[in-house]
Amino acid sequence: MHIHAEVRNAEGSMGIRVAVAGASGYAGGELLRVIAGHPEFDLVAATAHSQAGSPVSAVHPQLAGLDLTLGATDAETLSGADLVFLALPHGQSAAVAARLAEGVKVVDLGADFRLESAEQWTRYYGGGHAGTWTYGLPELPGARAAIAGADRVANTGCYAATIILALAPLIAAGVADPEDVVVVASSGTSGAGRNAKVNLLASEIMGDLSPYKVGAHQHVAEIKQATGAGSLSMTPILAPMPRGILATVTARRLNGGDPREALQAAYADAPFVHVLPEGSWPHTAATAGSNSCHLQATVDIDSGRIIVVSALDNLGKGAAGQAVQNANIMFGLPETTGLSVFGVAP
Amino acid sequence: MHIHAEVRNAEGSMGIRVAVAGASGYAGGELLRVIAGHPEFDLVAATAHSQAGSPVSAVHPQLAGLDLTLGATDAETLSGADLVFLALPHGQSAAVAARLAEGVKVVDLGADFRLESAEQWTRYYGGGHAGTWTYGLPELPGARAAIAGADRVANTGCYAATIILALAPLIAAGVADPEDVVVVASSGTSGAGRNAKVNLLASEIMGDLSPYKVGAHQHVAEIKQATGAGSLSMTPILAPMPRGILATVTARRLNGGDPREALQAAYADAPFVHVLPEGSWPHTAATAGSNSCHLQATVDIDSGRIIVVSALDNLGKGAAGQAVQNANIMFGLPETTGLSVFGVAP
Amino acid sequence: MHIHAEVRNAEGSMGIRVAVAGASGYAGGELLRVIAGHPEFDLVAATAHSQAGSPVSAVHPQLAGLDLTLGATDAETLSGADLVFLALPHGQSAAVAARLAEGVKVVDLGADFRLESAEQWTRYYGGGHAGTWTYGLPELPGARAAIAGADRVANTGCYAATIILALAPLIAAGVADPEDVVVVASSGTSGAGRNAKVNLLASEIMGDLSPYKVGAHQHVAEIKQATGAGSLSMTPILAPMPRGILATVTARRLNGGDPREALQAAYADAPFVHVLPEGSWPHTAATAGSNSCHLQATVDIDSGRIIVVSALDNLGKGAAGQAVQNANIMFGLPETTGLSVFGVAP
Amino acid sequence: MHIHAEVRNAEGSMGIRVAVAGASGYAGGELLRVIAGHPEFDLVAATAHSQAGSPVSAVHPQLAGLDLTLGATDAETLSGADLVFLALPHGQSAAVAARLAEGVKVVDLGADFRLESAEQWTRYYGGGHAGTWTYGLPELPGARAAIAGADRVANTGCYAATIILALAPLIAAGVADPEDVVVVASSGTSGAGRNAKVNLLASEIMGDLSPYKVGAHQHVAEIKQATGAGSLSMTPILAPMPRGILATVTARRLNGGDPREALQAAYADAPFVHVLPEGSWPHTAATAGSNSCHLQATVDIDSGRIIVVSALDNLGKGAAGQAVQNANIMFGLPETTGLSVFGVAP
Description:
- Chain A has helices spanning about 25-35, 55-60, 75-80, 95-100, 120-125, 145-150, 160-170, 200-205, 220-225, 260-265, 315-330; strands at about 15-20, 40-45, 85, 105-110, 135, 150-155, 175-185, 210, 230-240, 245-255, 275, 295-300, 305-310.
- By secondary structure, the first copy, chain A, is of the alpha/beta class.
- Chain A has 2 domains: about 15-155 and about 315-330, 3-Layer(aba) Sandwich (Rossmann fold); about 160-315, Dihydrodipicolinate Reductase, domain 2.
- In chain A, strands 8-9-7-10-13-12-11 form a 7-stranded mixed sheet.
- Chains B and D meet through helix 8 of B and helix 8 of D.
């Protein structure tokens, strides 16, 4: 498969050469869009499995004007890149990563390298554990330095990012009891991938809220690892919107601490995480197309539990935006390069 | 205001004469639709405040063909009815009810007469407590008999119905800890009423999930009263769909009890409450346009908490359907008369 | 495949025995819902291809409580029925119909038997022409008598029904020029069927309007046959809603005729076709779940062309409702039996 | 009202000072988003009527992180700007523009200055004609030069832009008959503005297609002026999506010309107008958040009419994006500066 490198919108002259493996899905499409507008990235290759040979704009009509053809996901196609994003189905990243040269920086959007514990991997995902890469959530304490020094970074999952950003500071500050966390989180349909399944058809989804994997979602392991939560009940729900995750995270309050202050302290310098003014609650549409996460917290007047609500774009801060933010840090660029703080709304 | 009593679709010859006060809102429109198809009800009057004088079909285009003009909400217009449904804004039911003759049966869809405790009323709603009517959720133990003997029934709130049906049997059976209940519930927009507000505009809602009244929703008092829950955290969310409520109810598990069995035992004879086969989870679209509530329960593999998911149509089992079910019981009719068990989907 | 005949909601004692072949799709599900509430129909069998053996409620969650198992689409399963609805993929009706006994009444929701001209069939559908059955649009002049005398009726297509109801009276009355008709019609996604295709995924559809088969839709032949139009340009568009078709039909005006009066005259006695009051325009949501069609007409102030807008539910008057209306007529029942004039809205 | 000029995301050092009058609506919000990411623009003021004094992010939650307070729409607040965008209700632009200094460049997103004919203005809008500014659709022949030399530019209307881009080249090339144009165009709800009206509520819009102003839309005058069309029938429809316009433009074909070639020739050098590959049809979601317009054309096999389909984002190429494109040209910047060619999808 020949690669057309003359990307219409790339204008960086000494840019970083970037490839996207698994570019035909929704996260892949969003990666291409963000990369095409990134001042330091030159998009040199995009690969896909069954759609290799198709123009990118045939697979992603929103990219009409991007002159690039999808290649096969093999070492040759990816070999010219300084930076490779892997947006592959779970379980396929390890094989592709193994064929990339050592100096190439890689961000994996899949789950393969997120967990430290092989046992937890097997419990939640099944099969053999591929290994552990640097965990790519820059807003966690110490994470920026670790990411800056890494060549291989495992991007946070979309649900996980939404929930960890809401919960981690509360547990770290001793405000929330890590042994009694209850999460209900709803996701837009792009989070379920570009898979031709009857239950994802528009006719079934519009007007509908439907829970799935109730009581046993695989992101629980990742959330517990990153937050220190000991017990966490999670109910994921599919919502009738293309993008966005809204997580309601509740926990028993400890020591009369103020959950909103804990969040403000944790994210004072984070350009993409906004603790909203008191009385304003996050909603997903406000984050669409951006790399921002919006947060708010209160204490329930009846039960006294802490309630934190967190919203982000599952394809933005939950996937492609997050991945580019990690890559920016890996290359020593300002964290916000090529990323939008502002959502596209309404 | 003259009343046109020749309703095109009513065909009952010795029917019960029915009036709807507050017929211009969404619950009022749904009441008219259900009543028009009810074999024992004759719709004789429908009233509204600012739209008195308009044909019903001008206010509710889905009722084109219903030959009825909206009257004023006064004693004269409502005087010919054997049964009056009140679908008025909160706080207005008492004044209208006071003007109805004693023998007239009344179902109030508002909150005014739901609470037993004047103190709770003032805490959650503010203002003076109008009183307490028979609580209209037929599936609660003993409720059918109470409703059958009552002339005044207070219909359950929409969120409350969804959550009470999920929670009451678990607390009654000793399976769930009443002191640690966490609820996150999402509602379609018709639950917010037919009010011209910017935050309810389609442009703001589509693609958006937005929480509101977090930690302080007024239905909490009603839910606690009906279930015996002692502590309940509730987060309500507005979802981008016209109808439907999906509630995720979690509670600490007691005594290793089986939550699904408790639900099955409670609703074995309830025609409108369906505990789904194991592995099937409720979703809102399946209940749209019906008076059914769908339930499923499990135990979280990580936290051991009970998770119950409950779905219904906020205008159906959450409002108009429920009200007609109560009225059926009040008049000694089969509970299901004129009501649909089946949803309109997709 | 054994058939469970004890349908929970059927209560007719001397009912007509009804079977649905192809019950797993959206039109099939709607047929089951309408039949289950029909006072003279007893649902005795529902068949499907790949999902034979599944409970109906597993395939159609909105029918929870309907105790029926899907059978195979064969002569044995269908043999006990007095009335069979065929809701099969195009091209499969002829083979199934051939195996049904002569006295059995059949309504085919597919296209196979709609066209009179074998040449037109081949042009628009390709392949061999199966034959021509009585055309099942009762509101056309003379159609009720023909349907009442028929054992085999070909149900109108969903786009075709929307457009023919708007256009036929204008051409018949000499108000519209049959040689210059332009139609743009948008359909909800259930019109595209329950097919697991990427372009029908919720993520692709929500927020999107997408035209397809532009300039060459197969319903054109059927519309011309039923209306006498000589030249018709049709652009179909997929709209982000589960149900509903809105057709804008424009034509050159002849003789200064009044298009609205022509429509009123044509449908004065049609219980399901409503010419709205002047100034009110049809919209799809008002017809959802009903068997009604809403119409309005005007003359464009700039071009002088006639504009008629027509709305109906593609699964109602465009498929299942229409089919039951035809069956009612075939069995001598009142046309409206078991069908709703009123939509489920919002 | 004091103006906070320290906009977080503006980084241009010698930037053009920009103000937005009427910033609280949807077009105003989109303008703020685009300006905040524009490398040569410094946002110095944003004004609103009733919401003056509110932080921008309280009115536009998607702009959380933009540190700016809405001012009053008066000469003082706008006086520091080199460039002013007017996004005011129709009829208010003239008064505000009159108070701006002569050298200030102004782009008006309203209709006030679009029409050349006072008579047409009065016919379609009523009231007195404010005057005529340079018409701001850069892709029209000769328009770029006119815009580059203008200090006052009237931005094209959203429907008008969609339709003119589809139609103008066909009439100019003699391919389409200007005396027989039929347009049906559907718009997302943001095109109806941020007005608290019942008919724009989410409950009414979701699941619904509703026509309005049938046969008498005010954009007809603008379209005829810009394209040379002599007779044009237009039916506008409100669609259940927040953004996007899809126009189907049909016209009688002249001289056997090829409509697609005419479009390709007209837009060969237009960076934002994409004539799609044959067989691909425009859909609105692919243009969301971008300044692109997608086009495709064919000849109807039955009627021989030309059918052109045009899609764009009503807030992008139909309003804010178009306005920034015009401003870029007015300031001698590359036309694409700060604008995205690519849509945000899904």
